[in-house]
Amino acid sequence: MRKIAASLLLLLSTTIAFAQNASSTATQTINLNLANAISIEFVATNNNTGAQINLAFNTVNDYANGVESADVTLRVRSNKKFEVRTKSSTEYFSYSGTTSPAPQMKVKNVLKMKVTNNGTGGNIDNGYGSYKSIDTDCEDILDNCSNGGNQTFSVKYQATPGFSFPAGTYTTDIIYTVVQE
Questions:
Q1: Which CATH number fits domain 36-180: 2.60.40, 2.20.140, 3.30.1490, 3.30.1360?
Q2: pLDDT value at residue 20
Q3: Sign of CA dihedral 81, 144, 44, 56
Q4: What sections of 34-100 are H helices per DSSP?
Q5: What is the pLDDT of residues 61-118, one digit of tens each?
Q6: What is the Cα–Cα distance from 85 to 125, expressed in whole angstroms?
Q7: pTM of the model
Q8: How far apart are alpha carbons 163 and 58 in whole angstroms?
Q9: For the chain, what are the domain ranges?
Q10: Angle CA(47)–CA(51)–CA(56) in degrees, nearest 5?
């Protein structure tokens, strides 16, 4: 019995001496395939179509001095530096009213815009820190803007049609374009 106990003890100690912890590893590579991404939207509507702006001319002073809109805020999201451009969609306002033939009101002679708040980290360009006419030619209003997910800026519009045009509704679309640098 002693021989069996000694043999069992010897076998047990040999097994313990040569025992190792079992382990294994696996490796996986993760690639993030990022593309250049950019978007612009109106903060009030959370999409790329802004709310309609109505500038009402009710008094002689409105016609003489012009009417100004409230601030309109836009948000840009871009993973690269960018610039913002603007233009009118048409050379002339479209007219809805009773006068025939329709009056021809040039957008650049009546409608102006200025940047009132710039949270993009960029520069206000081409004189848009003050009211400047909007034309059908695309023009930079902000440049060298910083990349980020919440780059905002605000604009105001001012219209001064004078006394040469009859009553009615005059309409144009203002187009904002963002381009990565």
A1: 2.60.40
A2: 74
A3: negative
A4: 60-65
A5: 999 999 999 999 999 999 999 999 999 999 999 999 999 999 999 999 999 999 999 9
A6: 10
A7: 0.84
A8: 12
A9: 36-180
A10: 165
